[in-house]
Design a protein that fits this description.
Blueprint (H helix, E strand, L loop, with lengths): L8 H4 L14 H4 L5 H14 L4 H15 L4 H12 L5 H12 L4 E6 L7 H20 L5 E4 L7 H9 L11 H24 L2 E4 L4 H18 L6 E6 L5 H15 L3 E6 L4 H11 L9 H17 L4 E6 L3 H13 L9 E6 L4 H10 L3 E7 L2 H17 L3 H18 L1
Parallel strand pairs: 1-2, 1-8, 2-3, 3-4, 4-5, 5-6, 6-7, 7-8
Helix pairs in contact: 3-17, 4-16, 5-16, 7-9, 8-10, 11-13, 13-14
């Protein structure tokens, strides 16, 4: 039994861990990979994003401008695209991957293009994900790729599966939808099979609550097949949902019963406003936590649960919250686990929270950047979400700016 079981999350942050030497205030580590010019470009971008009207106007205007043919391609490529995206193609990401490797930071590859509808496009998407797996296996320090089930399946099919309890037992009275779901399952199986062969982890992204149930079931099914010796398949748990901590515990019980290693990526969540709005309009209880404190509490409890069962759960702590990342490190220290334990990994989005990523790497933790790639025109929706995410998280843009300004000042006085 690990030592942590008797210590609460609220207590552990006050413990003075004498061996731990992690500070997220060290900007020299955080931005060592950026030149002075690049640092100033980042300052300009986050300064711009900090204006109250920039994000709401920009997220509507940018896609329109790209369609008009106006010469905005170069502006976008040299600003927001450069900040948050690894390149337009897989080979282009190699430069970023190589740079991050020099500082002990790994990469999670994500094809950042929105999924297109139709069985032919779903099959093509599966082929693309397999190509990404093969590419990752040919490089160093790309241990994972990310996939979305909505790139492989019709949204309304997932919603039907989610809403009909009879489907959870595999019983369905519509033969066409059975065949369609089997096609989805076969695509995901093919992806996971390639990943197993190449020893690359597959992170299955979380979706909206009204289509999440089939995603969860398929993730568990793939884990049972491919996670016997080590975690290849990872499900994503969004802790801004009030039922997800219980779901984590349930998933662990299933994994123990069926004899596989549970792969879990922990995030706070990405669909909060949409979830609350839909619940309100349709008159059902919101699945979202009542406040941020509840989300933080469950996120930290989930970190503790996973690390407390580290021989049975492989966890990716995917967070931009400094306290939660520090908490994860403290859990490793208190449980006398190495910072580079193979079943504990930290991750942040490329272009954000460098003060967390690079200081974790400096301390010897397994840490990665979530690195999207794809043609500029097709990753615009991803870029708009990043801009919205920075503006919606209280103080996120301001925190990024303060770190950048601090480092610019340090370099000037050095």
């Amino acid at each position: 039994m690990l030592f942590f079981t008797s210590i609460a999350a609220s207590d552990i942050r006050s413990i003075n861990v004498c061996k731990m030497n992690v500070s997220f205030e060290n900007t020299e580590n955080a931005f060592a990979y950026k030149t002075d010019k690049e640092l100033k470009q980042s300052r300009f971008l986050f300064n711009t994003m900090d204006y109250p009207l920039f994000v709401p106007i920009g997220t509507r205007l940018t896609p329109f401008l790209m369609k008009t043919g106006l010469p905005v391609h170069g502006i976008i490529r040299n600003t927001i695209f450069k900040q948050f995206v690894g390149g337009e193609s897989l080979p282009e990401t190699s430069e970023v991957v190589s740079l991050l490797r020099q500082y002990g930071v790994q990469v999670i590859l994500d094809y950042g293009v929105e999924g297109k509808q139709g069985e032919e496009n779903f099959d093509k998407a599966a082929d693309v994900f397999i190509d990404v797996i093969n590419y990752a296996a040919s490089q160093r320090d790309i241990p994972f790729i990310s996939i979305k089930l909505t790139a492989l399946a019709r949204f309304s099919l997932l919603q039907t599966l989610n809403e009909a309890p009879r489907l959870r037992s595999g019983i369905h009275d519509h033969e066409i939808e059975i065949d369609e779901w089997n096609s989805v399952r076969n695509r995901v199986h093919r992806i996971c099979e390639a990943a197993k062969e190449k020893n690359i982890g597959v992170l299955i992204d979380a979706e909206e609550s009204w289509i999440q149930d089939p995603v969860d079931r398929l993730s568990i099914e793939m884990m049972e097949i491919f996670n016997k010796e080590q975690a290849i398949v990872f499900n994503t748990i969004q802790l801004y949902r009030h039922d997800r901590l219980h779901f984590l515990e349930l998933s662990h019980r299933i994994a123990k019963q069926k004899g596989f290693i549970l792969g879990i990526k922990l995030v706070r969540g990405a669909y909060m406003e949409r979830e609350r709005s839909r619940a309100f309009l349709r008159g059902y209880p919101s699945p979202i936590q009542p406040d941020k404190e509840s989300t933080d509490r469950d996120f930290d409890a989930a970190c503790a649960y996973c690390i407390n069962h580290v021989d049975e759960i492989s966890v990716i702590i995917a967070s931009h919250n400094e306290k939660s990342n520090l908490y994860g490190v403290q859990l490793l220290e208190i449980n006398k686990l190495p910072f580079n334990h193979p079943n504990v990994h930290f991750s942040q989005l490329y272009g954000m929270s460098d003060n967390i990523t690079f200081n974790l790497a400096k301390a010897g933790c397994n840490v990665s950047k979530y690195l999207p790639f794809g043609p500029i025109r097709e990753v615009i929706p991803y870029l708009m979400r990043r801009a919205q995410e920075n503006s919606s998280v209280s103080g996120q843009t301001g925190r990024e700016l303060s770190m950048i300004r601090k480092e610019i000042k340090r370099r000037k006085s050095a």
